[in-house]
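hey
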């Protein structure tokens, strides 16, 4: 019973082993070395792609040549050590030339002499497994290379523990330890730039609430040296507690400092150009009376744009800088009047005056050793950064813009600050223009008052002149006509009774009243010239002079001098005044050539004298140039003889008439040779 039971158990075990050998993909074999008997399952043949042989050479042909020595040495070492188990990985070359990776696990049975007599083992094809491991290893290498080459920072934040881990390369780039404590919000505030904290905090809160699937934000992190560096932080909560609160979050930091600063620099410059254009347009189109408000808004916009706390515009005159305008947070724009001389800040004044270049101190430590007063100015005023932009013309300092940072040091690049030099100078000129305009308006108001007073005086004088002209025309001429009439009666009706002396007396009365009548007529003409309204037109002076000469020939048939005219003489002016000028001058030429041999009068153009000059010359008696200034005065006569009668008003009338037309007149003469009168007519 016992034997049958054992036989049955053995039969069942053999059956299970047979099924196991058939179902597994591993190659199973049992090699009896001494008896040279080999048993193997079908999977063994499938691994090698052919029937397995017990021949040792067959094995060597299929094992990869590069693995022969290593396998031999490993197996010999196992035999020598009487090791019951031998593990090995090696390659085989199948009949079709393909290479497979195998993992061997062998049980070694030894005889009484310690020699191996039986090998029972299994071979597993690990080709795909090795390929997968290689790919994973390559991926890991690529990831490490990407992290290293791209300065990719990996962070792991244990929220509950209040600690954050950063990989070594990124921590070293930021100058921070790889493992750091981030216990509460104050620690985050110290790490993130103040201007970026709210944005980063809001993004994290949105991710915690599930509004955002990922935490992603561009922000500046504070380096170990105190400077800030732009990073793109991406992360995700990977573990939450039962309440949904974050326990652990992990992610990466990408260094985008250069790219971000380039973008911000471009954006800053575009915004700078927009601000400059906006302020320039505002200043150039603002009426002077509104300039204080416009300058205040412009200076405030500049201060806010540069992140400063105060700005002042200085005007430099006579080695003194006066604060023309100032803008501070919460303070209105007002002219300050504070004065600064070279003695107050000698080093800075010398720098601005001699170098004519901008100055920027990012901290008091940047001040030179000799700038003791400036350092005291920094410390007393709580100033963190300070900038000055001078305005110069041909090396002479004319003004400056001063900027002060108190809340935080300046973060804007120096060249971006100094780009506002032109705009600041425009503000200086605009404020100065507004101030000058206000002064001009005050002076104009005073001038208008004076003009009004003088106009009133002139109107009164004109009224008196009109009254005088009326008196000349009516009140005086009537008695003169009466005297003239009675003198004619005596001369005609009482001549026999008068005798020689009486006739001479009456003749004198007639001449005197006639001369007085001509004098009154001249005064009336002079008055009308001064008051008459002008009618501007184009005038043919050559034709006008010809016509006047013909009238004089008719009026004086016994004296007909030769007259030479230039053709094409013309001007633009009042017809009546131009004719009055030529009539008086030609009448004088006629009068003073009487009795001269070969009398000659010329009317010629004189372009060599500049402008539209016409010269009226004669070869008459001339005059002494010592008295030329008396020629054009009313009632002044250089010739008193009776042969050259006159009232002394004609040349005064000529000067008044040509002056009203916008021209000029002067004379040259020589006694016994002749006289020339030059008239500059308007073109």
């Amino acid at each position: 019973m016992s034997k049958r039971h054992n036989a049955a158990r053995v039969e069942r075990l053999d059956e299970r082993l047979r099924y196991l050998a058939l179902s597994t993909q591993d190659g199973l074999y049992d090699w009896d070395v001494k008896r040279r008997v080999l048993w193997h399952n079908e999977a063994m043949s499938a691994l090698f792609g052919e029937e397995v042989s017990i021949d040792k050479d067959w094995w060597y042909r299929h094992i990869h040549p590069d693995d022969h020595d290593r396998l031999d040495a490993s197996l010999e070492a196992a035999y020598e050590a009487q090791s019951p188990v031998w593990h090995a990985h090696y390659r085989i070359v199948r009949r079709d030339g393909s290479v497979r990776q195998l993992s061997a696990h062998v049980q070694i049975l030894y005889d009484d002499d310690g020699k191996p007599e039986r090998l029972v083992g299994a071979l597993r094809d690990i080709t795909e497994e090795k390929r997968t491991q290689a790919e994973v290893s390559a991926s890991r290498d690529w990831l490490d290379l990407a992290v290293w080459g791209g300065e990719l920072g990996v962070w792991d934040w244990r929220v509950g523990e209040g600690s954050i881990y950063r990989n070594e390369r990124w921590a070293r780039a930021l100058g921070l330890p790889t493992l750091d404590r981030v216990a509460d919000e104050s620690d985050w505030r110290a790490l993130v730039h103040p201007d970026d904290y709210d944005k980063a905090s809001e993004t994290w809160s949105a991710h915690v609430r599930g509004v955002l699937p990922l935490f992603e934000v561009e922000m500046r992190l504070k380096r170990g040296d105190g400077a800030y560096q732009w990073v793109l932080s991406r992360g995700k909560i990977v573990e939450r507690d039962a309440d949904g609160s974050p326990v652990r979050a992990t992610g990466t930091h990408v260094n985008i400092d250069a790219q971000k600063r380039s973008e911000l620099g471009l954006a800053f410059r575009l915004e700078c150009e927009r601000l400059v254009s906006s302020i320039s347009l505002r200043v150039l189109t603002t009426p002077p009376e509104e300039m204080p408000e416009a300058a205040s808004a412009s200076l405030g916009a500049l201060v806010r744009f540069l992140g400063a706390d105060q700005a002042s515009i200085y005007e430099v005159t006579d080695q003194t800088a006066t604060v023309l305008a100032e803008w501070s947070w919460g303070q209105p724009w007002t002219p300050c009047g504070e004065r600064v001389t070279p003695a107050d800040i000698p080093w800075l004044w010398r720098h601005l005056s001699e170098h004519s270049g901008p100055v920027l101190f990012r901290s008091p430590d940047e001040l030179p050793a000799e700038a003791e007063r400036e350092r005291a100015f920094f410390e007393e005023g709580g100033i963190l950064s300070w900038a000055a932009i001078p305005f110069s013309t041909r090396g002479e300092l004319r003004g400056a813009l001063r900027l002060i940072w108190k809340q935080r040091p300046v973060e804007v690049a120096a060249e971006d600050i100094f780009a506002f030099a032109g705009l600041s100078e425009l503000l200086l000129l605009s404020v100065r223009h507004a101030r000058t305009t206000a002064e001009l308006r005050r002076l104009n108001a005073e001038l208008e008052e004076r003009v009004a007073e003088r106009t009133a005086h002139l109107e009164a004088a004109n009224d008196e002149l009109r009254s005088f002209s009326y008196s000349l025309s009516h009140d005086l001429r009537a008695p003169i006509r009466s005297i003239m009439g009675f003198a004619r009666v005596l001369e005609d009706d009482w001549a026999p009774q008068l005798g020689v002396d009486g006739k001479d007396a009456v003749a004198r009365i007639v001449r005197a009243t006639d001369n007085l009548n001509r004098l009154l007529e001249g005064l009336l003409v002079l008055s009308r010239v001064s008051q008459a309204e002008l009618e501007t037109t184009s005038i043919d002076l050559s034709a006008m002079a010809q016509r006047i000469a013909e009238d004089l020939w008719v009026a004086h048939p016994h004296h007909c001098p030769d007259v030479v005219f230039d053709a094409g003489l013309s001007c633009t002016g009042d017809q009546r005044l131009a004719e009055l000028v030529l009539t008086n001058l030609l009448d004088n030429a006629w009068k003073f050539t009487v009795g001269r041999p070969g009398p000659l009068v010329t009317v010629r153009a004189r372009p060599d004298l500049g402008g539209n000059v016409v010269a009226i010359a004669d070869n008459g008696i001339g005059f002494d140039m010592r008295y030329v200034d008396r020629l054009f005065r009313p009632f002044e006569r250089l010739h008193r003889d009776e042969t050259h009668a006159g009232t002394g008003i004609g040349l005064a009338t000529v000067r008044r008439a040509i002056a009203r037309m916008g021209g000029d007149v002067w004379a040259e003469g020589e006694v016994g040779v002749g006289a020339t009168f030059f008239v500059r007519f308007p073109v």
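The chain has 18 helices and 25 strands. Residues 421-493 form the longest helix (73 residues).
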